[in-house]
Design a protein that fits this description.
This protein is of the alpha+beta class and about 250 residues long. The protein has helices at about 15-30, 35-90, 100-110, 125-130, 135-150, 175-190, 215-235, 245-250; strands at about 115-120, 155-160, 165-170, 205-210, 240. It starts with 14 loop residues before the first helix and ends with a helix.
Length: about 250
């Protein structure tokens, strides 16, 4: 037969205090005990009690410090998690949503109801990079986003889906409302003063599509994108509306 596992005894951390307490109890119970023995047991008990008080205060202090450090670490972790989430869903240059986040949010909005999608592209953007370099091109992109934000505000969702291409999603908007906003965005960009070395007017072309609830992102985007290219072919710096397919066509897509 195998021997049972040996259980190690856990040392009593308060053994000396327990002995002092037992001696004090004995002195208290002994009616014949003289005052010297009673005072000695009381002094011993007081000494151990004071030590326990010091250790308790020290442990409480360490616990409070550990709790503060833990709270600070939790706050740092929460901040880091927010930063990581923001980086995963936002464009690093402009701070607007990136392509993946736009697709996700647009898909949700279109599942819940109708939405207008606006696709815009900076006209002749390659010339800016060729003439002034990519840092100037980045500054132009940031200026474009400033214009978009000033018009869209909280009415919709702005995203950067390519180098110089952006989308603006307007949930539950009518086509007329969206066209008015698109025209305001076009004018804001055309009137914006871009700093040196660019120091020239910049324009953008817009394509607009209205999609009913249940439309997938690719269909809504393709419609707006086709309207955008119509605007490019018609001379740029203009807003064009997508030809709306029939409901039957949307269901077949």
């Amino acid at each position: 037969m195998s021997a049972e596992p040996r259980t190690e005894e856990v040392p009593d951390l308060f053994e000396s205090e327990k002995l002092a307490l037992d001696r004090a109890r004995e002195a208290l119970a002994d009616e014949q005990a003289d005052s010297t023995a009673t005072r000695q047991s009381l002094a011993e008990l007081t000494q151990h009690f004071e030590r326990l008080m010091r250790e308790t205060r020290r442990l409480i202090g360490r616990s409070d410090r550990a709790e503060r450090e833990m709270n600070a670490l939790n706050l740092q972790l929460q901040t880091l998690a927010h930063e990581l989430e923001h980086r995963a869903t936002h464009d690093a240059l402009t701070g607007v949503l990136n392509r993946g986040a736009v697709i996700d949010l647009a898909g949700r909005a279109l599942r819940d109801g109708s939405a207008v999608m606006i696709v815009l592209d900076i006209d002749y953007f390659k010339r800016i990079n060729d003439d002034f370099g990519h840092p100037a091109g980045d500054a132009v992109i940031q200026g474009i986003v400033t214009c978009l934000r000033s018009i869209v505000a909280d009415a919709g969702i702005i995203g950067r889906v390519g180098g110089e291409e952006f989308t603006v999603l307007l949930p539950a908007h009518t086509l007329d409302e969206a066209l008015s906003l698109a025209e305001s965005m076009r004018e804001a960009i055309a009137n914006h003063v871009f700093a040196a070395p660019v120091d020239r007017g910049i324009t953008a072309s817009f394509g607009v599509s209205l999609s009913p609830g249940g439309t997938d992102f690719d269909t809504a985007y393709a419609l707006a994108d086709e309207a955008l290219y119509c605007a490019k072919r018609a001379g740029r710096n203009r807003v064009e509306v997508a030809v709306q397919p029939s409901v039957a066509t949307l269901r077949l897509a």
